[in-house]
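Study this pair:
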Amino acid sequence: MIADLSLYLVTDPDLCGDRGVVGTVRRAVDGGVRIVQLRDKTATDAETTAQLVELSRVIDGRALLLVNDRLDSALAARERGARVDGVHLGQGDASVLRAREVLGAEAVIGLTANSPEHLEAVRALPPGTVDYLGVGVIRPTATKADHPPALGVEGFRAVVETTALPCVAIGGVGIDDTERLRSAGAAGLAVVSALCAAADPAETAEAFVRRWRAAGTPRVLSIAGSDPSGGAGIQADLKSIAANGGYGMAALTALTAQNTTGVRGVHVPPAAFLREQLDAISDDIVIDAVKVGMLANADVIRTVADWLDVVRPPIVVLDPVMVATSGDRLLDRDAEAALRELLRRAHVVTPNLSELSVLAGRTISGWDDALAAAEELSTATGAAVLVKGGHLDGDDVPDALVDTGAGVRCEYPGRRIRTANTHGTGCSLSSALATRLARGESAVDAVAATRAWLREALRESTALNVGRGHGPVSHFAGLWERGRLETRPTPEQIRAEWWTRTVDVRAGIDELPFIRGLADGTLAREPFVFYLAQDALYLREYARVLAEASRLAPSPHEQAFWARSAEGAIVGELELHASWLTPGEDVDAAMFSVAPAPATVAYLDHLRSVAFGGDYAELIAAILPCFWLYTDLGQRLHAGEFGASALDPLHPYASWLATYADPAFEDATAEAISLVTAAAATAAPATRDRMLRAFEVSSAHELAFFAAPLASAVTA
């Protein structure tokens, strides 16, 4: 079994105060702590052994129990009947090889590692010796005065990237570190003072757990039968898990031959094979939630119960499949008794009214009586009960969440959705609920969100047109409607597609007499000066557009890049224009005294309309052709594609042609392409379409701008 390290409590007797270590651990485990490390440097071995025995009793298998350093105390506590799951060792403590030998293959063994030397020592150990690494400190902490230099989050990330072992972040970890550390690759958070010194360790642990779950994708296991028609069983569960934001897994309890009109046959594989499936999953993957559905007989139920006792998943949602639609009981007496025992391992039970009646052992008369029966069942099992009113007569079909231990009784009103497509609704609801709970939602909120999703799936089910009987719900109706089906392109794909879209523009620029004459030196001075004068007008306004891109930029890096580009357009490029247009003079008003040509006006009007529309992504797409097409042309001029004349130092426009292949401008162009294609890749499809349109329009304006000098001469 792979250990769930998500919330790891390291005890400190001084911080626990009058409440004591045992009281603190009890409350912290109530709140969701998954692993407890007893650490007490001042206690004797005998005292440590006694504490382990008491903690084992209090934890009662709800979390793993480890001891820091004291391997012999762990062995002594085991001899006294305590469940001690393993040890955490420092680099200088008892040999990790001896710990593995004496504690056995199933023990959990952790090792401190916070330096390259530590990691090298770990890599030298035989595979399977160590289960996880405690990596830190993350930031300075008063609970360990002799700690090594703080790693910080990025230092922790660097360690994670060098090892395949799960890494727990420890040392000065607070709740606001949760998201950053999980993103950095943490398998869990080891917390000392934030839990030991908390006013209520249960509330604090719950807050940590919510933040941790919300920061990742929940891994949800369905233990249920199959439905080859796809509407119920594990097929429905996997769709529901995915539709609610989880990663779904499945262990098959039974194979059925069924469709929307009914069940034709059931095959139950040996229970031992079910256990093999369950062990294969839990030996490799941390399971955040389990949904339990169809369990065909007592052997299967007991197999699931035994596995749950070993793994202790943090969330178990049990859908008690006990009564067929016809009203027939699906389980024999032995299986029903085993299922009642299984309820004690569940956190939430989701019976319909018929199943609630069987579990309560009495007839249920109406909704109020159903709520009373749910309270009885919750009190008897310790689980919350989501009682479903879909089998009530009439148009009102409420549901209710009842948890007597937590003092919760929340009703959810609803009107019946008129549809025959109800196949698999119970399966879908329970697996969706398990996923929502594993995402960190409270039980009350998770039920509300699950019901909203399922009701939408019911409303949209007719469009599926599946089967002649009771069809399935449309699990992905909302995603199909709001998320579309197109895959998101990569920046590299955007770059290739957009460049291909400019092939005609680029060919048109290459064939322009202005470009050909500029390349071979035959271009008359008058059209060249015309081009420079128009380009000066263009650059003055283009710099303002670049400045607007800087203002709208979402990150400091992008803001700085577009600001530098605006400065370069004014300081660098306009100074070069002045050397041709007003020799011996600085950039002044005389440079801008010419009338703008129609091509200049059209290009600038396009840029300004995009710039001051306030859409950053569309604006930088419109800016890009001035970088990209200009650099491409310069690179090819200097590669000799337009003839050797362009490379001649005595070329009449040699100083100007040199600017086309300026390395600094090439670097700026590469950065501009990277920023624009990254923005397009992450944009919504509609925004990406607008970006492409702006890019193509600007590209066409580039062609017209290069054509204007000689077109103007012909017109004159």
Summary: The CA atoms of residues 470 and 584 lie 87 Å apart. The domain at 491-712 is CATH 1.20.910.10 (Heme Oxygenase; Chain A). The mean pLDDT is 91. The chain has three domains: 7-215, 219-483, 491-712.
